[in-house]
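During the reporting period the student researcher (J.K.) took over the structure-prediction task from the postdoctoral fellow and processed the backlog of single-chain submissions. One of the processed entries is reproduced below for the supervisory committee.
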Amino acid sequence: MTKQTRLIVGVIFIAVVLIGMTLFLLMRRGSDLTIEAPAPPRKVTPVPLPPPIPSVIAVKANLPIQEVKTLAESALRDYLSKPIQRKDGAITAAIKLNLDPLTMTGTADGTLSVNVPFQFSGWARVSKKIFGQVVQKREDIEGSATATLTLTPTLNSDWRITAQTSSDISIQRAEIEILGITISVRRILTELVQEAVLPKLESLIVKYITNIDVRTRVARLWAKLYEPIVIKKEPSIALTVKPLKILAQQLSSDAQTLSFSLGIETYIQADMGDVVTDSPHSVIADLPDIRFVDALESGYHIIAPIEITYAGIESFAKPRVEKPHKLKGIDTLVKNLTLYGSGTQLAAGIEFSMPSLGAAGQLYLLGTPIYDATTMSVFVTEFDYALTTQSLLLDIAQAAGEGFFPNLRTTVEEKLVFPLEDRLTKLHKKLADVIAERRIGSYVVLRGTVDTITPEALYLTQTAVHIPFRLHGDLICEVNLISSRGSD
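J.K. obtained the following structure tokens:
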């Protein structure tokens, strides 16, 4: 080797040593790649909840007109079993009324029309003084007639039922003559029917309807609503109802039924995870007076707050997050995932290690949890490193190269997806099963549907993510009025 060659080799060797020393001084050592970011505060920002929306439970109380007709017909037959005597001056009459089957129908405004066909038979006697002697003569009378009664019952705000009535009568045989005296059979029968038969019939119908005592029936239902409706025992789901007021339309009817349409305005809340008791949860308010409305719109709104604890999300996500990952070609081990609320965001703390880089430490990310109705799942958007973590990563990037650190943020965001489809499906099914047909005592049947389940604004507490779901559907109580004379 010539002297010149040895000189060139020596210069190259010195240059390589200098470059190596420079890179060694500039490159961070393993201890310099240890990140210990401080944790974001474990305190959530309180969120005002939306006010509850009142629900209206429709109450349909139906009284079959056939029930009223049968009762009135039976009582009227007993009442008319004996002849009724009438005396008007020189005329004495005894008439027996044989009742034919009644017909009774209703109209849309609640008016009941009653036709009372009957056969009448008996006698009329005239006492007349002729040439100083009292002469009596009796003639038999018989025929048929039809009395009509129109009755319009009214439900008053104090729960009393009153009625307005009108009546008429038509008679085939109008009059007879005895001893030269014309006797008006029409007048006798009209007075008899209007003074004895129709008032009795009216009294029977009004008394029957009034004796139903709708107030007592609805008061029992009102009190029952204060008792929790258990949907599921484990984990517990129950509905609590707070009745507010009574709405009503005036009575209506069709050909077969006299109907009472009421609405109980309430607040309904779903209590999930609380201890369910059989006793009323608050003092039962007295049944209020009725407030009449032109139209009743029924429907319920139930807020069911589904709670997803941070511990529950952790347990679900740990198998997907806490494992080796290949990030930008670098083997990265993630462990000790921790989730909690911070402000209005979800904080995720993770420990990581990258043996090939000699890097390790604790990172914190913050993101906004949202509910996606399409996938029925909760996930986090805009997940990014906390500011303190970003500062440490920026410091490393400036020294070691901006692209060297693998992106853990995207990996954690993709893995933190919490499905709720199973919970919502069970909630829908359980509620639908409970309200499909629920008997309250022997006189009320509760029937309902679950039409929609929509999420409200998600919010965080110290222990969990809360998603209020609004369940909407129809809820109708059918009150049996046929057995009004019995007890429950």
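The committee noted the following: Residues 65-212 form one domain.
J.K. will present the remaining backlog at the next meeting.
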